[in-house]
Amino acid sequence: MALLQLTNVTGGYTRKPVIKDLTFSIEQGELVGLIGLNGAGKSTTIKHIIGTLLPQKGEIRLDGVTLNEDIDQYRSSFSYIPETPVLYDELTLKEHLELTAMAYNIDEKTLAQRSEQLLKEFRMEKRLNWFPSHFSKGMRQKVMIMCAFLVNPKLYIIDEPFVGLDPLGIQSLLDQMDEKKKDGASILMSTHILSTAEKHCDRIILLHEGQVRAQGTMNDLRRSFNMPNATLDDLYIAMTKEQDNE
Amino acid sequence: MNNLQEVWSKRFNHYMTEVQKYMRFVFTGHLALVLVFVIGAVGYQYSEWLKVVSDTFPAEWIVAIVAGVILALSRPVTLLRQPDQVYLLPLESSMMRYFKKALTYTFWSQLGLPAVVYIAAIPLLNTVTELSSTQIWIGIIFILLLKYVNVQIEFNYRYSNRGANTVVDRIVRAVLSILTIYFVLNWNIALAVILIVLLIAYNTALQKKVKTLPIPYEHFVNLEQNRMMGFYRFANYFTDVPHLTGSIRRRGWLNFVYNLVPFGKKNTQSYLVFRTFIRTDDHFYLWVRLTAIIGVVALIVNIPIVTWVITGALAFATTLQLKYALLSSSDFRMDRLYPVKENQRKDAVQKLLRLFMLVQAFIVLFCSIGQPLFFVPAIIVLVLSEITFKFSKDPSNNDFSY
User: Where do the TM regions start and end (chain B) (predicted)?
Assistant: First the structure.
């Protein structure tokens, strides 16, 4: 059984749908890239999966349940890193980690272990008692990443993870993702950095105007576009051109 | 260039609607009640004091200093916005027309305060000084003149110094304004006129410098943003102003309060709410201010029924406003995704309010000691707060989209 299964999901902010009839799934231990132009519906898709938007039609199952069936289990099964960091101005870095641990029922000992390792990995040990107003965009992003990885869920949902991170930060994030994958977790990541997506993703979902244009491994995609040896950049451009000609 | 005047009038209309929108909430709130009470009490005390005030009371100096300092605070209202630094750049040379309109508005909108202060002082001047009524009223004309020159100078000074060292200019103008009013009140009109001429010369010198310099957009936009933020902060005490983030302070001396919230999943929202309340200036000072007012009222008002009514109104206001501030939010926060019970936030806010209203009740109790039925105000605080929380609308936003 797929860990995450979207079946014919249609939805958006108003009655006019942004995403139409989306169907795709993510298996356990898979890293899937969600790729598309600005406005293709990547963030809207993610908002439906995390449950801040509810589908007008269709169904989203995470680890066997929908949000309505078991909201606690559904929400415990994923952690989310938004495109723009959303932090509490009134909480220090340490308190962000503590709050997250409390919400996801992680005991204090595990919290101490995991946060020590994460703080070291992202080089934030010295900023434990700082408020976010003193953080740069990249550091804010790191706080979000650390909170997400602290939870250790079955699914990670990451929206544009590399924007604002320095090269070391990007490497740390990729390392963390690899490690979690090895432990059996799944990752859904939306991004514009196609070379990184091509290198690290097991499968790619190409989203265009709210619909799945193509999905599969790089080889599947090359076959469906009839472009052997193409890079993801080539495929991406081919997709947009093809749509323009229609 | 007609369209710059249009730009001004459009902005002005927009600004007025914005101000009116929020002022409605301000004057229907508890402030109106407190104001009526305070103005009444102060007016009564003032008239009583006038009966006994001694002839040697330095009324001229006091009126001159208060009015002079207020006159010197003439921050220009330009209504400039961030994008203007880019879009209005080609209109640089005709911008003076825009600023002329802006300064006219600044003058009229800021004239009220010094005028009211002066007019309120007229009974005092009549009692203490030898001035005739006509002479006192001529003082108003000088207030008008001084305000006009002060507004012009402050703008030109900020313009030519790019917003640096404004304190120096303000002190100079305050001193000159104080002396002018003092001379008028001693009926030394010649000296007063000389000082005004001096101020005008100061302004002319600045104007010459202004003509050679580009508009310091950065400074004026900043000034404007701070002014609007100040207004929104103020309005936020009475209603929910969207997207307003208050300033944060650690207030480490209150850390012990967090011990009331032990580590654990069921305390997730309490963990957050306690810190949000204590560290956000807007929330915390709201409580401090209202508690202080209740305390002072309990301490000085000797008519029990008045104390009770005011205590009740303010306890109601504290609870309602804090409930609103902590429960309503249209912005996305991570805790909306937490796998915790939906009503945990509301319970957490209730727990916090119970604690801080209990503290408020204790303070009132302490301040009422010695009054007849001294325990009643404290009970009113607790009961009214509980009722208010229970029966007021739940402002939390259950709409998931953000």
Answer: 21-41, 61-81, 102-124, 136-155, 189-206, 355-384
Which residue of chain A comes nearest to B275, CA vs CA? A90
Closest CB to A99 among B248, B250, B271: B271
CA distance readout (Å), A241 to A212, A215, A244, A245? 16, 18, 5, 6
At B4, is the secondary structure helix, strand, or coil? helix
Check: complex ipTM more than 0.90: yes
Angle formed by the axes of helices A93-103 and B268-279, nearest 10°: 150
Residue B392 clears pLDDT 80, i.e. is over it: yes
Q: Which fold has domain A4-77+153-245?
A: Rossmann fold (3.40.50)
Taking the CA of residue B344 and the nearest CA in chain A, the distance in Å comes to 11
Q: What is the pLDDT of residue B263?
A: 95
Query: pTM for the complete prediction?
Result: 0.75
Q: Does residue B334 sit at the A interface (CB-CB below 8 Å)?
A: yes
| Over residues B210-239, mean pLDDT | 85
* Nearest residue in A to B270, CA atom: A99
- Kindly list the distances between the CA atom of residue B218 and the CA atoms of A133, B76, B163, B215, B222, in Å, as whole numbers in the listed order: 22, 14, 9, 9, 6
Distance from CA of B396 to the nearest CA of A (A): 15
Predicted local distance difference test score (pLDDT) of residue B400: 43
Residue with tokens 């002072």: B296
Half-sphere exposure of B196 (CA within 13 A, CB side): 20
Among the ranges given (A115-129, A171-185, B22-36), the one the predictor scored with the smallest mean pLDDT? B22-36
Note the residue count of chain B.
402
User: For chain A, which residues make up each domain, given as ranges?
Assistant: 4-77+153-245, 85-152
CB pairs under 8 A between A and B: 73
Helices (H), A92-246: 93-103, 108-121, 137-151, 167-182, 194-200, 218-225, 232-245
> In the predicted model, what is the mean pLDDT of residues A7-24?
92
* CB-facing half-sphere around the CA of B391: CA atoms within 13 A: 7
> Quick one: pLDDT band at residue B401, thresholds 50, 70, 90?
very low
Cα A51 to Cα A59, A68, B163: the distances in Å are 11, 10, 48
